[in-house]
Amino acid sequence: MSMKRRYLIYLVLPLVLVAVAAGWWLKPAGFNRAEAALAEFSVEKLSCGSCVQKINEALQPVAGIGTIEVSVTSGRSRVEFDPSRTSSAEIGRLITEAGYPARLRTELSPAEYAGLRQEQTRLGAKYVARVGSRLVARDDFEQALKLRLGDREASPALLEQLRRQLWEELQQREILLAAAESSGVVVQPGEVDVRLEKLRQGHDDLDQLVTRRFGSMEAFRRQLRNDMTIEKLMATKVPADIADPAQRQLRLQQWYGDLVQRTEVVIFDPQLKRVTAGGGDCGSGGGGSGGCCG
Predict the structure, then answer these.
(1) What is the pLDDT of residue 233?
(2) Which pTM does this prediction carry?
(3) How far apart are CA 148 and CA 213, in angstroms?
(4) Could you tell me if 206 and 199 are in contact, meaning their C-beta atoms sit under 8 angstroms apart?
(5) Class assignment of domain 33-110?
(6) Which run of H or of E encompasses 134?
(7) How far apart are CA 7 and CA 3, in angstroms?
């Protein structure tokens, strides 16, 4: 399999990402975060950045609401609130009345939420995010960003664009690798050696190409092993008796959509959280079933 073909697998999966959109808003003035509790909801009918905006507009005027996070990708919303002024039940009701049925997944007391923030601050020193059980190392993320930037001038706008693109790809990849771990899918080093040898036969300048794109052969081997792990995982998710390519792709999309809904994603890095906020509008390709627009 050629290098180009290996990466086609990632061109299929974005079709099921209804929208990689999330919204984060700064906590309002006067909100005492030290006394804040946290509620997380499963939210239906999210399809684009407009949905995020509507939920934000429904909650922002309410006294006692702090930071609001809405992820279209995962169909979840996390809301900080002052339990002496409002409640998770009231927040859920407001989200539902905005047109997006909400169900409380979990609620943390002020003491529990303070403990979670401390833990995230500690992890944030070394990691930019956690996807499922997998932590995304800050050094790895910054190195990947540097390689992606190449010789171009590092303008703030370009860095923001690259950071957002890199995160969207990493998030998708880490979700699949987390699923592979939980399913016990393993690729042995010998399997990687065989695939690497095939690649060498098809690319005389493989070492140079690897150095330019991945920094080192060791980094490429890690990437290749992860690619093969994902391939092996996905091969187990579509029954062999489904021969029609369209049906196979549909089955794969359904499985991946469910997987995204189940996988918790937490961004520790404030800069990364900021650049991934917002998301596209309904006309940008982010619209899907159950849309909010109109």
Answers:
(1) 92
(2) 0.68
(3) 8
(4) yes
(5) alpha beta
(6) strand 134-137
(7) 7
Within the chain, all domains assigned CATH 3.30.70.100 are found at: 33-110
Report pLDDT digits (tens) over 207-247. Answer: 888 888 888 888 889 889 999 999 999 888 887 788 888 98
Positive or negative CA dihedral for 276, 280, 286, 287? positive
**Contact status, residue 91 vs residue 39, Cβ threshold 8 Å:** yes
What is the spatial distance between Cα 181 and Cα 124, in angstroms, rounded to a whole number? Answer: 23
Residue 8 has pLDDT above 60, yes or no: no
Residue 124 has pLDDT above 50, yes or no: yes
Cα 288 versus chain centre, distance: 18
**Which residues partner with 79 through β-bridges?**
39, 68
Tell me the fold of 126-276: Triger factor/SurA peptide-binding fold (1.10.4030)
Q: Taking Cα atoms as reference points, which of 46, 22, 48 lies closest to residue 100?
A: 46
